[in-house]
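re: ur question from yesterday

yeah so i grabbed the chain u mentioned. its 290 aa long if i counted rite. heres the sequnce exactly as i have it in my notes:
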Amino acid sequence: MCGIVGLFFKREIATPALGSLLAGMLSQMRERGPDSTGFALYGDDAPPGAFKVTLHGLGIEYDWASLEGELATAFPLTCRAQPYGSHAVFTIVADPERVFAWISACHPELDVFKDVGRPDAVAQRFGLAHRAGTHALGHTRMATESAVTTEHSHPFSTGADLCLVHNGSLSNHNRLRQTLQREGIRFATDNDTEVAAGYLTWRLRQGRSLTEALEAALGDLDGFYTFAVGTRDGFAILRDPIACKPAVLAETDDWVAMATEYRAIAILPGAAGAEVWEPLPATVYSWHRQ
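ran it thru and got these structure tokens back, copy pasting raw so excuse formatting
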């Protein structure tokens, strides 16, 4: 039930091979998640005061240039679009919540960077093998809690830079969603994993570190889960208290990798000499750059 992968390079600069390596890891998880595939890449920072958002438009010929013009008219901002087929990455100088609210109201046909399909096809569609970055998360989905659609695919991003992928299912997500909505967390789907991402965003906004947010999740999230989480400068893994869902970690001097199965890690350079272990239940494993 689903496959998740993560790769975190310890060096400060973007690694040209990141996209190609992540595509290979996702390909190894194709039997675990035939429904849809998604990934999140962390790379070059946006300019000061700006943020990046990746949008999915209905239809391969979506008019991104027109949307760029609309955004520039609606906000006193600098807006730049980089199309990837049915998706485009926008760099925008504006308040993220105002932009998301405007997109939701004016363009409900837009979503985020993921798609229905097997990993090899999705990776090729978005040119993943040619993309650089510092760290990344990926997910292949076998749907259990919600429909097989682009918007229900992983990763889920509920904050300025937090992304989460999940193998498992949560039992208290409906009630927790209501609580988080009262705290100002915005949700786009009825997916249980989006609630977990929203919960972590809420804790981070309270001033907690990523590790502290995940430790708090152990007391507030019910169900089975292996989480892989990324932030601008962090990468973390957490399994539920009985470690119901599989996971393996590996570390070298250059990188840290996580996968549902070791075969996704075995393709990485230096994997033969890596320290490899199974993460313990109810234990946060995290790495950060200054």
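noticed a couple things. The longest helix spans residues 192-205. also The chain is about 25% helix and 30% strand.
anyway ttyl
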